[in-house]
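Field log, afternoon session.

UNIT: design team B
ACTIVITY: writing a sequence onto a fixed backbone
BACKBONE:
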């Protein structure tokens, strides 16, 4: 009899644990009709998951290593293994290093790159993984493209143009996206340097205004210029960087420039993954339960 009771209690514990994991996983995804943008905690790198109001998902960059596959389940449905679009903003290791793992673990429909080739083993692994992804279509990012996210939400490619081959540095080719849902706007700039920011200000002017800005190049002094901040007018600036990184990111002068504008600064260094949601009118910060699946 005691063996039967022990087995029954063990079974109930297992069922309860599995149910809890499923509930937590389901809660990670936004409710229908809401846009969710999560700046994933991947250390010294960028990885941003965008989930549209109808559930369409875009992953912008994948960090330096497999940390991205640890963080993704915290921002999407536990049972979900599909990503509609992967954007590799440029071929630097801290932006594409984890994308090979993403392509191995998730079914990806489209892969968007600036058309800039890299010269590292990390880049070669990414290219091989992209070519081996069944059915994935590879596209080149060009200014003027609009990516539909459903229910009126979209992401516009603001940069680069057709001059990628003429650019000296890989950062110069960073894909710049503006994500819009009703009154809520996010500006994502990869590692685009100040001269690219200046060019965008000249080209788009007031149309750059956004509620949330991802600081360019992890808060490096080479990006997030005063002119850029004045044009974007963000309420919130998110810095994606690693603790005690060797670059000193984010640089003090950048943080000072941001503070001067009156915007709030949040960093993955101290905050971990940072998630915002919008219903098209109101933008809110989301607090999520953090857990790590045992199989990661």
């Amino acid at each position: 009899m005691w063996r039967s009771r022990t087995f029954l209690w063990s079974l109930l514990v297992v069922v309860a644990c599995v149910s809890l994991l499923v509930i937590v996983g389901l809660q990670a995804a936004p409710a229908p009709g809401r846009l969710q943008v999560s700046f994933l905690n991947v250390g010294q790198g960028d990885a941003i998951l965008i989930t549209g109001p109808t559930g369409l998902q875009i992953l912008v960059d994948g960090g330096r290593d497999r940390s991205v596959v640890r963080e993704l389940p915290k921002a999407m449905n536990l049972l979900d293994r599909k990503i509609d679009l992967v954007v590799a903003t440029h071929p630097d290791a801290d932006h594409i290093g984890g994308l090979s793992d993403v392509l191995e673990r998730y079914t990806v429909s489209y892969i968007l790159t600036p058309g800039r080739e890299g010269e590292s083993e990390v880049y070669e692994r990414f290219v091989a993984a992209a070519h081996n992804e069944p059915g994935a279509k590879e596209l080149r990012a060009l200014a003027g493209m609009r990516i539909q996210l459903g229910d009126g939400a979209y992401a516009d490619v603001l940069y680069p143009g057709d001059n990628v081959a003429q650019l000296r540095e890989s950062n110069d080719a960073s894909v710049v996206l503006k994500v819009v849902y009703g009154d809520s706007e996010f500006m994502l700039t990869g590692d685009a340097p100040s001269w690219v920011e200046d060019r965008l200000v000249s080209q788009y002017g007031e149309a750059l205004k956004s509620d949330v800005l991802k600081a360019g190049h992890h808060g490096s002094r080479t990006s997030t210029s005063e002119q850029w901040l004045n044009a974007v007018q963000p309420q919130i600036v998110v810095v994606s960087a690693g603790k005690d990184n060797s670059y000193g990111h984010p640089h003090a002068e950048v943080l000072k420039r941001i503070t001067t504008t009156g915007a709030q600064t949040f960093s993955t260094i101290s905050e971990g993954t940072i998630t915002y949601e919008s219903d098209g009118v109101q933008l809110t910060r989301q607090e999520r339960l953090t857990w790590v699946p045992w199989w990661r």
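LOG NOTE: The radius of gyration is 20 Å.
NEXT ACTIVITY: expression trials, pending approval
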